[in-house]
Amino acid sequence: MVQKSKGPPAAPEQPKRRGRPRAYEPDVALGKALDLFRKQGFAATSLDDLSEATGMNRPSLYGAFGDKRELYIKSYQRYREEARASMVAIFREEMPLRQRLERIFASALNIYLSGDTGPRGCFTVVTAASEAVGDPEIRAMVLDGLTELDKAFANCFRRAKEKGELPETADPAVLAQLASATVHTIAIRSRARVPRKELEAIVSGAIDVMVGAKS
User: Fold this and answer.
1) CA distance linking residue 149 with residue 105, whole number of Å
2) Taking all residues of the chain, what is their mean pLDDT, rounded to a whole number?
3) Is 214 helix (H, G, I), strand (E, B) or coil?
4) Cβ proximity of 72 and 40 under 8 Å
5) Which residues contact 23 (CB under 8 A, 6 or more apart)?
6) What angle do CA 145, 147, 150 make, to 5 degrees?
7) Is the pTM of this model over 0.70?
């Protein structure tokens, strides 16, 4: 009796992949979290809000970024990196002091007045400064950001003084603090939706105080 052929041997089963593939881009998700924290602050932003904004459930958020505080810190770091990148060329290029200051403040206003639902201001001044009161790590980051800006402005004024654009009596450190204070002022006012034209008038007056009125 002839036995029927059973056909070729079955191919070995492929090992099953463990876990599910990531359905999100970490950089995009972090950007969404950053936008939400800038708009609402830390305390007013819930994990459900973050899940909805990023499209990630809570376990995925924890796995990618840690808890809410860690995600907030990563968002703040991202903000500082982006803000620094937008201004670094202006601080480094050779140009007259007044022109440099005008471009720095204009760039700051572009950042502060951005937002799909309205101006968001500055993450450092409006959002992170509130958390700095009770969180030493965030406080250190805020102080580092403020110091970094002071030093960048001081270097600008120092170079301008060396080139004769400022009088010998000018103090670069003091002028730097005035410039930084102007940045903080327009950050707060932009959050309150003061019109850009009024903010530009504040900037113009501050520059006149720092470098002298146009002749």
Assistant:
1) 12
2) 88
3) coil
4) no
5) 55
6) 110
7) yes
Report which residue type is found at 167: P
**Three-class SS state of 194:** coil
- Characterise 56 by phi-psi region: left (phi > 0), alpha (psi -120 to 50), beta (else): beta
- Any idea which of 11-15, 75-79, 180-184 has the lowest mean pLDDT? 11-15
Closest by Cα among 149, 155, 146 to 94: 155
C-beta of residue 119 within 8 angstroms of C-beta of residue 193: yes
Structure tokens at 26: 């970490």
Task: Find, among 196, 30, 42, the residue nearest to 112 by Cα.
Answer: 196
CA distances from 105 to 59, 139, 140, 171, 191 (A): 41, 25, 25, 20, 15
Instruction: Assign residue 154 a region (left: φ > 0; alpha: ψ between -120 and 50; beta: otherwise).
Output: alpha
Summarised one tens digit per residue, pLDDT across range 34-88 is: 999 998 999 999 999 999 999 999 898 888 999 999 999 999 999 999 989 989 8
- DSSP secondary structure letters along 129-183: HHHHTT-HHHHHHHHHHHHHHHHHHHHHHHHHHHTTSS-TT--HHHHHHHHHHHH
